[in-house]
Each structure stands twice: as structure tokens, then as C-alpha cells.
Amino acid sequence: MRCRWLARCSTALESLAAIRRDCPEVFAGLGTVLTPEQVGQAVQGGAAFAVSPGLNPDVVRAAAAAGLPFAPGIATPSDIESAVALGCRLLKFFPAEPSGGISYLKSIAAPYAHLGLEYIPLGGLDVENFTRYLALDNVPAVGGSWIAPRDLIRKHDWETITSAAWTPP
């Protein structure tokens, strides 16, 4: 089956249900949410939050109306200003490493520091660099596919994935 959306996988809602059932302590959310309809599906599926790679005002408004914590993707100061105008204070910095990494994030975030914005970097993070992002005061969380790379998923290597997800570096 070809993956389409919500974590770019057609089984995202089923996976979310399993996580919520088997690991209720996990704060589980969904991405990649691209449409207002997907916001509704995320809410119905019990997502604690959702993220997207870009800033779609219709999706931001749908998430706000549904009461779903939502982090739209930003990569420029203009993106940040648009997100702030829509009421967002938690932003997905994407793609983090290709955009310039930590030094770029510090530069674009600086003019908005007084607003208390927070950033979740994704894109190019790995086991070698993610802790440097987490050391920043305005980064409450990070994300990355290094935890569950596609080859390990295809091999059903759940032990290695579990170890990567639950073991600090």
C-alpha cells in the first residue's frame, strides 16, 4: 500500500490508536497534516497534536477551531510572521539542517524572542545533532526519521526502532 499522508502513511490513524492503547504515557501526534479534512481525522483519531511541513492558513484555522495543538512548518522570517498572525506560538522549523541548522534558527528566531515562540526542528536531524537542538531554550522537542528509518520498518525490525525511540544517546 502506498503511503499518502498523516506521517505519510495510510496506516497512521491505526498506528496512533495502537500507540494510545499500548503506550498511554506517550504524547502522540500526527503529521504530515496538509488539509482541513485531515485535521478533523487527526482529532477523531485522538491525536494530541499535529504538524505540517508548511504554513497553510486554512489548516491552521481548522486546527484552532478543533482545539488541536498544531505546529505549522516555517523556514523564513515571513513564515514566522504569518504563523504569529494566525495565533501560532509553536512552530515546526523545516527543513532544519538544509535551511542552515542551529545557527540559522537562532538568527531567524532572534527578532521574535520577546513573543515566546517555540520551534520543533525536523529535517536532517540525526542521533549526532538532535541534542544540540534540544539544548536551545526555544526548542521543546525535535523530530526525525532516524528513529524509525524506512529500511528498518520494511524489515519489521521493531527491536532496533524501539531501542532508538526509548534510549537516550
Describe the structure.
- With 169 residues, this protein is mainly alpha-helical.
- The protein has a single domain, classed as Aldolase class I (TIM Barrel, Alpha-Beta Barrel).
- Helices cover 42% and strands 8% of the residues.
- The protein contains nine helices and five strands; from the N terminus they run ααβαββαβααβααα.
- Strands 3-4-5 form a three-stranded parallel β-sheet.
- β3, α4 and β4 form a beta-alpha-beta unit.
- α2 packs parallel to α3.
- The chain is globular, with a radius of gyration of 16 Å.
- The N and C termini lie far apart (33 Å).
Gap between N and C termini, in Å?
33 Å
The helix-and-strand class reads: mainly alpha
Radius of gyration: 16 Å
Number of helices: 9
Query: Which fold does the CATH topology refer to?
Result: TIM Barrel
Assigned CATH superfamily = Aldolase class I
Strand content: 5-15%
Q: Order the strands across the largest sheet as they lie in space.
A: 3-4-5
User: CATH top level?
Assistant: Alpha Beta
Low-confidence stretches: 1-7
Could you give the count of β-strands?
A: 5
Q: Can you write the helix and strand succession as a string?
A: HHEHEEHEHHEHHH
What assembly state would you assign to the polypeptide chains in this entry? single chain
Q: Provide the residue-averaged pLDDT.
A: 90
Total tally of structural domains? 1
